[in-house]
Structure formats: C-alpha cells, structure tokens
Design a protein that fits this description.
The chain is of the alpha/beta class. A six-stranded mixed beta sheet has the order 5-4-3-2-1-6, covered by helices on one side. The protein has one domain: STAS domain (Transcription Regulator spoIIAA), CATH 3.30.750. Helix 3 links the parallel strand 4 and strand 5.
Length: 165
C-alpha cells in the first residue's frame, strides 16, 4: 500500500485556524505550515487547532516547527490545541517537549468538519530555505528541553557547517 503524500491542510474561521496533518508529515510541508501559522498570528488569530487523525507519523523537523509555532503562540497568549493524537503521536511529542507549549485534547474529536478546508499555501522553497528551517527547528527542540541536545546535536552541527553558521 502506498504511503499517503504528506499534506497540511488549513481552514480559517474568524480568530481560529484549524490544521489537519495528513500522511507522514516531514520537512517537506514544514515551511508552508510555519509560514501559514506566522501569517495567522500576524492577522490576529489567537487559536490554533491541529488535527492528527490522519497523520501517520512526523519527522523531527515538523515537530520542531510545532515547537516554534507553540512558543510564538504562548508569547501571543494564543490557545494551542492538538486533537486526535494517538499514543504514538503523544509519545513522540511528549518525548521532545512539544507538549510543554501545546495542549492535547483528552477526548477524541470524531469527524472534524471544516466549513472551508483548503491547502496551506504551497510554493517553491529553495534547498537553503529548507536547510535553514531544519536547523532552526532542531535548535528550538534543543532549547525547549536539554534532553534533546544529544538527540539532535549532530544534525545541528552538520547543518550549521553547511550553512556557514
């Protein structure tokens, strides 16, 4: 069976943005996801909900971006909620500290209906932009929890050298 292509869909209704992560979400969708969330904050959105009901798994860059969005959201006093996270999602996100900046729904949210569901803005992203995002995401994870330093130090060191930082 073919793996579902990664997607992060978004819908905005007033002061709320609902994201739905689909498939194996990775660095490939992280840039657009982060840009959409940053723009939403700039537009005054103060509630972000992430639905993981169709998320197969996520890579460390995507989790780092979740941490980045969460940290910025806390600064803006935004409400950040993850719904439909299974035990595997929780283990991944708790293990690197993302649960410190996002709240998890204790009950499943069946049939998340979105009045308008559209794909988050897609655009051509340069390799350098992706490398910069991966570097920043992993640095954020290391800053969020010291236990992440040994997990991601090699990635950060390698990308820092490649980017000349």
């Amino acid at each position: 069976m073919a793996e579902t292509e990664a997607q992060v869909l978004a819908a905005t209704q007033g002061n709320v943005v609902v994201f739905r992560a689909i498939g194996r979400v990775t660095f490939k969708v992280s840039t657009d996801f982060r840009e959409y969330a940053v723009k939403a904050y700039a537009d005054g959105v103060r509630c972000l909900i992430l639905d993981l009901s169709e998320c197969v798994t996520m890579d460390s860059t995507f989790m780092g971006v979740l941490a980045m969005i969460g940290i910025e959201g806390r600064k803006r006093q935004a409400q950040l909620l993850i719904v439909n996270a299974d035990a595997g999602h929780r283990k991944l996100l708790d293990g690197i500290g993302v649960s410190r900046v996002w709240t998890f729904s204790t009950e499943p949210v069946p049939e998340v209906n979105l009045a308008t569901l559209c794909e988050a803005a897609k655009g051509a992203v340069s390799t350098a932009d992706v490398a910069e995002l991966v570097l920043t995401a992993h640095r954020t994870l290391m800053e969020l929890d010291e236990a992440n330093i040994p997990k991601f130090k090699n990635v950060v060191d390698l990308l820092s050298q490649e980017l000349g930082k």
